[in-house]
Each structure stands twice: as structure tokens, then as C-alpha cells.
């Protein structure tokens, strides 16, 4: 899948379009093909490395979380 992500911390210039493994839906889950997603202040702080110490960030990182606003069609339930 293609994803806007970052592999190093920094400003907006560290964002790049990456090819990442396509996730599979598990039991009772759906997969969503995201067509649009919002960017929040927290996303910018994480990308910049200015996040609270209790937040684990694995690189490469796709900004956002399950509370982020996104839109797209669902895929079959796992």
C-alpha cells in the first residue's frame, strides 16, 4: 500500500510517500482504504520529535491514530 509516512524526525520535508505492507483485517475487524485523512497538532509534534516521553514511536511512522478523522470505503470483515 502507499502511505504518507516518515522514517526520521523533522519538519514537513521528512514526509514521503512509502510502499508499506498491506494490513489484513483480523477477526471482527474491517479494513478501510483511506482516501482522505486530517492532520492534527499532535501528528506534527510526533513527526518533529516533540511528543511526550510516554508515547512510543516506531519508524517508519504513519501519522494519525484511531481517533483521527479519515474517510474511505471499507473492505471485507476479517
Automatic annotation (TrEMBL):
Gene3D superfamilies assigned to the protein according to its UniProt record, in alphabetical order: Medium-chain alcohol dehydrogenases, catalytic domain
Record's keyword terms, sorted: NADP
Keyword NADP tagged: yes
Superkingdom per UniProt: Bacteria
InterPro entries according to UniProt: GroES-like_sf, Zinc-ADH_QOR/CCCR
Protein name: Alcohol dehydrogenase
Organism: Thermobacillus xylanilyticus
Amino acid at each position: 500500500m502507499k502511505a504518507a509516512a516518515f522514517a526520521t524526525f523533522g519538519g514537513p520535508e521528512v514526509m514521503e510517500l512509502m510502499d508499506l505492507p498491506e494490513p489484513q483485517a483480523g477477526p471482527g475487524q474491517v479494513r478501510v482504504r483511506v482516501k482522505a485523512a486530517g492532520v492534527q497538532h499532535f501528528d506534527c509534534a510526533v513527526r518533529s520529535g516533540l511528543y511526550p516521553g510516554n508515547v512510543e514511536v516506531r519508524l517508519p511512522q504513519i501519522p494519525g491514530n484511531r481517533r483521527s478523522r479519515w474517510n474511505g470505503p471499507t473492505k471485507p470483515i476479517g
